[in-house]
Design goal:
- The protein has 188 residues and is α/β, with parallel strands linked by helices.
- The protein has a single domain (2-187), classed as Rossmann fold (3-Layer(aba) Sandwich).
- It has eight helices and seven strands.
Length: 188
């Protein structure tokens, strides 16, 4: 069964790579990095801001299946969330995914104080990155990792976010040159 699901997941991901421009999916290189970080750090709880069609979530859940973790994913658009749901279902990972639909800032604001994450992936409204950062900080474990996409492809929209991370003494960060560029911030 696992081999069949791995094959289905690989085929589904190849199909989704064809829609990268339409759904603003991460690059496969970024997916490999995220997947590797989750496994290396034995991540248990991931928050994804921006589900889209589920491509990045599949990279995340492939790793979480190995660590025994869970994914909470937020998507503003109902249609995209339905597409992601079908992709997660096809790949056999629905059991470790919680879907939240609506405005990410409102949803994060409404999370209970005991809801914490050790990994956050941000790939939604670029001008809201700084707001997401401020809202998620109380929900991060010690030594949490934040990865934000489109740092070099949308520099004018994410500069306030980069500045906020840079000024926050609880985080160290680096910008990595992969397609679209990612910022990796470590809380520690």
């Amino acid at each position: 069964m696992k081999a069949l699901l791995d094959t289905v997941t690989s085929e589904t991901m190849k199909e989704l790579e064809k829609t990268q421009k339409e759904f603003w999916n991460i690059s496969p290189k970024t997916g490999v990095l995220i997947n590797t970080f989750i496994k290396m750090m034995n991540i248990q709880s991931v928050l994804e801001i921006g589900t889209s069609n589920g491509y990045s979530g599949l990279w995340i859940t492939k790793a979480l299946k190995q660590t025994g973790g869970r994914l909470t994913t937020i998507e503003y658009y109902d249609k995209r969330q339905r597409i992601a749901y079908e992709n997660f279902k096809k790949c056999g990972v629905l059991d470790i995914v919680r879907f939240l639909q609506g405005d990410a800032s409102s949803i994060i604001s409404s999370l209970s104080s005991d809801e914490i994450f050790d990994f956050v992936f941000i790939d939604a409204n670029k001008s809201e990155y700084v707001k997401y950062f401020e809202l998620i900080k109380p929900h991060l474990t010690d030594k949490a990792l934040i990865v934000a996409d489109n740092i070099t492809s949308h520099p004018e929209k994410v500069q306030t976010f980069i500045d906020a991370v840079d000024l926050d003494k609880d985080f160290q960060y680096e910008i990595v040159d992969v397609p679209g560029g990612i910022l990796i911030a470590y809380k520690g």
